[in-house]
Design brief:
Radius of gyration: 18 Å
Distance between the termini: 18 Å
Helix content: 40-55%
CATH topology of one domain: Four Helix Bundle (Hemerythrin (Met), subunit A)
Order of helices and strands: HHHHHEEH
Low-confidence stretches: 1-17
Strand content: under 5%
Strand order of the largest sheet: 1-2
Mean pLDDT: 86
Structural class: mainly alpha
Number of strands: 2
Number of helices: 6
Shape: globular
Amino acid sequence: MALAALVSIVGVAPVGAQAQLIVPKVGAPGQLITTALYNESQQYAAWLMTAFDSIPADKYGFRPTPAQMSIGAVAAHLEFANYMLCTFFSGTPHPMTAKDSLPDSVKARWPKDTLTARLRASFAFCKAAFDKLSDANLTDSVATGPPFRAKKNVRALLVIAFTTDLADHYSQMANYMRLNGMIPPSSLPPSKS
């Protein structure tokens, strides 16, 4: 009842009208740091997918100012960044297709269903990439190259960059949702399951 009143005052709530909270994994010995990073990344991935799924397709061209990315551009950028960062930290390459090499500006205009399906697949790829990690290999030096300054970086840097990139873009999407009268997933009451 209170949620219905809040939604009527504030605006449209995402589908389901409840926050998507993940059930955190419990870290085994030798996996405490990687498990913490995994749990944090998975929470932001869940919120991001809930946000993208709940934003109407006709809003995917929305951008607060001409200098900012549109919602569709954020989805396309996240897909690319997820594959890049998770490939670097796991050592498992994502097989590129002809569509993958298109500029984000082209991908940003794809239909919502295409963008969300591709983003969801990139999150699944990254979820599997965490299986290659252990606390012991976080200090390994791994090849990166552009867009990073060094040709090699410590694996932990790339895992942290992935997690903070999700947090950064979730903050961006939460603001875009509020500007469109929607409640971001993290601001909704948690589900009862």
